[in-house]
Amino acid sequence: QVHLVESGGGLVQPGGSLRLSCAASGTIDSWYAMGWYRQAPGNQREMVARITPGGRASYGDSVKGRFTISRNTANITVWLQMVSLKPEDTAVYYCTLDRMEGRSWGQGTQVTVSS
């Protein structure tokens, strides 16, 4: 099945930047919609960013203007560039890949924004 591996999480000060990456492998024969979700303790899971096979990007309201999703279609990878990070951005960030049969999830990477 599809295997997604996130990397790039860590500890950063408010106002700082991080870049997350997600590499996909397995039974993948074309470029599918991919995205990023996040979940903090006590909070609901929320959509952060998505990118369609046609390259159209969309973002959650709380991150618009600060986060940017990009892709490499050759090796099926996505990145999430995060700037102007806030404490409320602290969460586990999950990579997703959507196919007809359902959504695949990565194991998650922790992002902590704190002084």
Task: Report what the structure shows.
- The radius of gyration is 14 Å and the shape is globular.
- The mean pLDDT is about 95.
- The chain has no helices and 11 strands.
- By secondary structure, the chain is mainly β.
- The strands form 2 sheets. Strands 2, 4, 5, 6, 9, 10 and 11 form a 7-stranded mixed β-sheet that branches. A 4-stranded antiparallel β-sheet has the order 1-3-8-7, with no helix packed on it.
- It has strands spanning about 5, 10, 20-25, 35-40, 45-50, 55-60, 65-70, 75-80, 90-100, 100-105, 110-115.
- Show unreliable segments: none
Pattern of helices and strands: EEEEEEEEEEE
Helix segment count? 0
Strand tally is: 11
The biggest sheet amounts to: 7 strands, mixed
Q: For the residues shown, what is the average pLDDT?
A: 95
Question: How far is the N terminus from the C terminus?
Answer: 40 Å
Structural class determined from secondary elements: mainly beta
Q: Estimate the helix proportion, in percent.
A: under 10%
Sum up the overall morphology in one term.
Answer: globular
Proportion of beta-strand residues: over 45%
Oligomer category: single chain
- Radius of gyration equals 14 Å
List the helices and strands and how they pair.
Layout: E1 3-7, E2 10-12, E3 18-25, E4 33-39, E5 46-51, E6 57-59, E7 67-72, E8 77-82, E9 91-99, E10 102-105, E11 109-113
Parallel strand pairs: 2-11
Antiparallel strand pairs: 1-3, 3-8, 4-5, 4-9, 5-6, 7-8, 9-10, 9-11
Please summarize what this structure is.
The chain is mainly beta. The protein is built from no helices and 11 strands. The strands form 2 sheets. Strands 2, 4, 5, 6, 9, 10 and 11 form a 7-stranded mixed sheet that branches. It has a 4-stranded antiparallel sheet with strand order 1-3-8-7, with no helix packed on it.
